[in-house]
Amino acid sequence: MAIYLPTELAQRLANLWPFGSSVAGAMSALMKASLHAGGLHPFLLDAGYWRKRVAALERVPRGVLMHYRKDLGHPGVEALELNLRAHDGGQLRAMLGRSLFQPEDAELRLRLLEEGGAEEPDWALVASGVADFLLIQRTPRRLEDRVLDVLQLLRCATTVDGVDSSRICLAPTGKHAPQDELRIAQQLRDKGLA
First vs last Cα of the chain: how many Å apart? Predict the structure, then answer.
């Protein structure tokens, strides 16, 4: 598994990390410290680093192409496939499943497709009244790009009819710990940057 750090962040790590001046040495030490601590390194949550990237994301048009997937829908629920523009001009695909009878202030759970997972919403969750938003990721992508993809999908989720934007939850998929891109995006939301 490869870990991609943006060049600017890697250079900052090389200048600040006490384990030699090479970027490889700094990244190796970063990976060991991160794995040992079980969390994200503070440099990955640096507000200064993300601020200009989030500002650039705000300038990307919010064009969304949405179409119903009748092949996935069930009685009382609908499935929508969404195509969005990523920050780098690429295309993002997502699936939205929601109940036709959900309350106006429904919760929305945003999650990432697991490797080998089904490209469809979690119907048990939808039946409970929670809208399920599934990002179908393009691979391979750098961590920075994956975080910005999640933030772009969050921007789209705030415009979904019947969803309370304060009740959008970034959720881990399956039994796994939350993916790094979800954890970073949540931290950025908590800091008011996204």
Answer: 28
